[in-house]
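Researcher: Next entry: Integrin-like protein (Streptomyces davaonensis).
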Amino acid sequence: MSPVRWTAVVAAVVALAVGGFLGLPTLLRDTESASAVRPAPDFDGDGRGDLVMSDEDGKVDGLNQAGYVAVAYGPKPGRTPKTQVITKNSAGVPGHADAQDFFGSSPVWGDLDDDGYTDLVVGSDRATVLWGGPRGLSGGTVLAAGTSGEWSEYSFGQLVMGDFDGDGHQDIAGPRLVAYGPVTRTGGAARTDRITLDSGEHPVDEAEEEYWETYDIAVGDADGDGFTDLLAVASVDYDGEPGDALLLFLKGGSDGLKAPVTVMKGERKDRPDIGHEIETGDLDRDGYDDIVSADSSGRGSVKVVYGNADGPDPGRIMTVDQKTPGVPGPETSVGFAESVAVGDVDGDGDLDVAVGDMYADVGKQKDASRVVVLKGDGSGKLTAPGAQSIHHALPGVPLDGTTFNARYLALLDTDFDGRAEMVVGTDPWSARPAGYCVLPGTSKGITGKGSYCVPVPRPGHAS
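Model: Predicted structure:
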């Protein structure tokens, strides 16, 4: 997974963003940590959760990699979602489509103008807000732009949203910039500040020629002070050679985000590698958000770095792998923990963790893809009874001739019943177009009964 091109799979809007050279769905990131069940966005205010899908590499009007974003508006039970496809050529969207714009990259959402409708922010050569309203998304406002392309997919990277300065307005951040709210339709962000999570061509530490390159970012209140903090996983290069992995912590406060502090650096027995993708949530119910990471190196594992009053605690780390008691088989040699998502799938108030397992055998089918759901019990250990193995052959899943693609995974409440549904990508190598499936959450966990699957729409193919 490229540290810049791929957005991490997170979850609060369903987002299946089709990313990178595979043309596969990636899931939109949540605006906040998973301290409770995560609701899906409602762009049109109809009381049903909507899904966001984008293909930053998609062709628009013959232009390669111009990119687009699509929204599947929450369907009534038993119906197929109605979709809307938005490009830079859509009415009201600033600019016009060009080749290699990568419009739709790094989608993130929240109510930026406090009108009660969820708004969507997408990357390109700039960050653009698509405004929610009673008819869904319409119009757009450039959030920030610059001659050096600070908000582009390549130089800006992933986007996240949270209230970093505690003023009640949503802010948007990435590895190089943070835009503070309120955000208006005419004026954009109230102010923008530079941050340093992705150093690009200029070293962070001139003496050591140390370069940071961001893999993933997430938001949460890791120190329990009421301000949203920013967490990042980055790699370090020294003199052009790959180096250590970092877990970085940027504390939120009344003045906004502070400078990054390195919480973990390198892979040692007392400080294991943090992995490539992170999510947040208060797994042990102590009032501090914890960092949950997917580390697919070797046979793969999930790591939890617990929060405390000082932020993430590198002295308190839990690791779960395929040999941990309670993790359902079969074991795989590669592909475990390709993705991770945090949510409450059974509505018991304790956060659960879903783990993508890319090459598990499903029945007689070799190297299929599944999701392992680790049951939380409020202790933060993720070893409670009731872990599940979820795959395409589960009764009720309407897939024929294709499998899951668990690299693209989210947990969120799409029907607002207090339980998170599982949203998972589908295999793009089959004859069927790449897309996603939504599997309901119940008091007993994830089920295939009542699930539905939808292909990712393309410009000119909205329904």
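Model: Note for the record: Residues 106 and 214 are 13 Å apart (CA to CA).
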